[in-house]
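Input record (one chain):
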Amino acid sequence: MSLKEFIIPAIDIKDGKAVRLYKGEFDKVKVYNDNPEDVAKYFQDCGVKQIHVVDLDGALEGKPKNYKVVEKIVKSITIPVEFGGGIRSFDSAKAMFEIGVDKIVVGSLAYEKEDEFLKIVNTYKNKVIVGIDAKDGKVAIKGWIEKTQYTPLEFAKKYDDLDIFGFLYTDVNRDGAMVGPNVEGTKYLAENLKHFVIASGGVGSLQDVEKLYQLRDYGVYGVVVGKAIYEGKIKLEDL
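The corresponding structure, as predicted from the sequence alone:
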């Protein structure tokens, strides 16, 4: 896997636009593009292998809200899209797969309604990524608003024996801040789990990506990168 293939560019959608938050705070938002599908086409043209799309409105409200925008993104490109944000029921998962997303990220539902979560996993085998959003060392849910009692590893271990694709580990305190990823936390998770771990949060440079790239043998599958690309710190076309 090349360095470029290891990078999974992110498109965070709020009110139909491509944005980034700062440390997961919804009142600290910056709009980068009014047409998220144009961003998706650009990423594909740069040669990446997949795209990570998040419905921020959906994460807050508990069901996907930017459904039409995500559908436009999926239809405008040929590479796989992994989607997260507000998937709190089997029906919302089914709806996202029906418009063509390749994988879904599920976090809050796994914590709150395990039976519903298992129904999704058993229906869409190896298509579910369990979202582990860590805030101050504990797993956060509902758009990062509520903290649970679980550490990231405790939460992940509950689902490591299921037919999932893997885990998405986001350090919320670093997300959108470009202060560097939680390399040690990512490594610790990956080496203690059977499934892949995708890293997210804090990447601010190509050097940050390279640190995580060195963890491939531990089971780190890739890294989600957002703000560093939008701010020109990482130029995909140059890789």
